[in-house]
Specification:
six-stranded mixed β-sheet, two-stranded antiparallel ribbon, 8 strands, alpha+beta
């Protein structure tokens, strides 16, 4: 079952990482161990973590050739409402997002 993440995480915090998909917004699915989250990102699929630091670790391990980078989609220099901050692996390879937190308000 997919659900929207919030800035405080999911209701039942059993995991630090979750499957994520973009469908008109970010939705999360089942919880993942760190190793499964890294494997998912390496296979070009998105993940969502309970914090920026957890999301950064997954992005860093998905491509160890360089440092990951943090971003959010912007409009006229400001973060877009409803979009999520996320990490990308070095040089966006693999092409996937490591989301965290809730949407920009």
């Amino acid at each position: 079952m997919l659900q929207k993440p919030t800035s405080t995480g999911l209701k039942a915090k059993k995991y630090n990482h979750y499957e994520a998909v973009i469908r008109g917004g970010v939705y999360v699915g089942k919880g993942l161990s760190k190793s499964l989250a890294i494997a998912r990102m390496k296979s070009k699929k998105d993940i969502w973590s309970i914090s920026s630091s957890y999301a950064e670790v997954v992005a860093a391990r998905a491509n160890t050739k360089g440092k990951p980078f943090k971003e959010v989609d912007r409009y006229r220099g400001k973060p877009k409402k409803g979009y999520y901050y996320h990490w990308h692996p070095y040089k966006r390879t693999p092409k996937a997002h490591s989301f965290y937190g809730g949407p920009v308000k």
